[in-house]
């Protein structure tokens, strides 16, 4: 009888343990499901901050760096369509002049432009730009300008020139531009800073180590200054970006995961203040497929898995890029 009682008690304990673990497991699954549901609600149903808060239609100015191509040009077009006046900053004056004219004629906004090469990091250039901005009520800054490795390259083989350019453009330019405009934003207790980040800053990317590190810096720095500036009425939003069709990505065809600049920028500007798929403060992953991908990275498999995944992807890209270089070198030699 004692053996039977012991067996029954043991069975009861096992049943209770199974029930407890079942409840925990169900709770965990429900929590994850709710977090995914929040992502979908953010990207499909909720609307972000209206740009009237930042002076749209009331004489407010937005600055866009890297404004002559791709995402940067699209930011300029869509901000102008919201009746923001624009300061366009990029390297080529002729392109800046053409875009400024297009914005003025199409959207009846005011524009200014300033040509500078961000890779030089010239103090004189930044001082000249500051003089231009002194006459503008700057409400929005889009730190969009960026540069990358030419092809995936092991760190020890990368040229000092490319390393320097990535650091100067992706890190120093964002800090210097922000330092220029923040004082007047603080004075008015109103402003928006959009930093165009990358999934390469979310998960380290081997063979793009300097670019990946620069975007990781941008993510961490955005969170730090976001916390500093929030009590002063300024919103900082690091935009976590996967691939977009652009000259820098070298991708020409759109797909489910790789949008054209127009829908991508529309998603960014329509979700200011929302996190989308991002789980870190002062960060947004607004485009719907990017948001789901961000959620998967945060919730499925380990970070080591995703780093290895990036390693494998970049190894393949590097092999194809080197083969292309070999073909081009052989063709050039043949034509000589």
TrEMBL record:
Pathway: Lipid metabolism; fatty acid biosynthesis. One of its GO terms (cellular component) is endoplasmic reticulum membrane. Substrate binds at residue 198. The chain crosses the membrane at residues 15-37. PROSITE patterns: ADH_SHORT (PS00061). Keywords: Endoplasmic reticulum, Fatty acid biosynthesis, Fatty acid metabolism, Lipid biosynthesis, Lipid metabolism, Membrane, NADP, Oxidoreductase, Transmembrane, Transmembrane helix. GO terms for molecular function: ketoreductase activity; very-long-chain 3-oxoacyl-CoA reductase activity. It is an enzyme of class 1 (oxidoreductase). GO terms for biological process: fatty acid elongation. Its EC number is 1.1.1.330. The keyword Lipid metabolism applies. Belongs to the short-chain dehydrogenases/reductases (SDR) family. This is Very-long-chain 3-oxoacyl-CoA reductase.
